[in-house]
Amino acid sequence: MSRKCQISGKGRQAGNNVSKAHNKTKKVFNANLHSKRLFDSESGKWVRVKVSSRILRTIDKKGLAATLKDYNLKLADIA
């Protein structure tokens, strides 16, 4: 499984490490991902997903079904 959030699609970004002497080397910034087991109240099933911390906060606030609806996804798309 790739290092991408299954709901938002957030992945890694590339940038530069800049030293005090202003030397630049390539650096990869990985997304803050967590493997979680979430309960979907509509279907009554547990789902294993790899999601970012930002999406976890959104799920806590709105719920899993509403978050999936915001991103035009269904439960079958992430399960």
Would you give the CATH topology?
Ribosomal Protein L24e, Chain: T
Report strand %. Answer: 35-45%
Briefly note the structural class of the backbone.
alpha+beta
Overall domain count: 1
Largest sheet: 2 strands, antiparallel
Spatial arrangement of strands, main beta sheet: 1-2
Write the CATH architecture name: Roll
* Count, helices: 3
Secondary structure: number of strands: 4
Task: Quote the average pLDDT.
Answer: 94
Intertermini distance: 13 Å
Question: Can you tell me about this structure?
Answer:
By secondary structure, this protein is of the alpha+beta class. The chain has a single domain (13-78), classed as Ribosomal protein L28/L24 (Ribosomal Protein L24e, Chain: T). It contains 3 helices and 4 strands. The strands form 2 sheets. Strands 1-2 form a two-stranded antiparallel ribbon. Strand 3 (33-40) and strand 4 form a beta hairpin. Helix 1 packs across helix 2 (64-70). The longest helix is centred in the C-terminal third of the chain and has 10 residues, at 53-62. The chain is elongated and about 55 Å long. The mean pLDDT is 94.
